Amino acid sequence: MAIEMTYGNFFLLSLFYFWASSTSLSLGIGYYTVYRPIIAGMVTGLILKDVQTGMQAGALINIIYIDFVSTGGSFKGDQCLTAIIAATAAILFSLDPIEAAAIAFPFGFLGILIWKYRLKINNIFVRIYEKNTGKISFLTYAFTMVFCPSCFSI
Hints:
By secondary structure, the protein is mostly helical. Helices cover 71% and strands 0% of the residues. The chain has a domain at 7-110.
């Protein structure tokens, strides 16, 4: 049975990636658990209705990123994005997970650009908050520090 990528699947995968890579919207849970390749591959498999292939692709990406450490802003590649693309390629094109990983790995570097863009956007809102420290209410703080950066970093 051939699996097709629908707009709904694409939307769910995009929303999942945004949530998994967000530390604020997921209260830290997403980045430290769901962001990891084996889980990202499994969720991609759930969305595309082939969990086993999704987990196989995610496990392979997990081996590639086994030494992942993001110390001091250094970033080897976006393991969640790589796992989502590898699982999607393996499921949609009936590829072996190794072949799908070879296709997806370069896209992990695209994730670095996405991450740096999100950091740059978030810095704008930190400066706004610093200017108004002590003058704003909690709701304004929540809007400035959580809602705005999340919306602008999509």
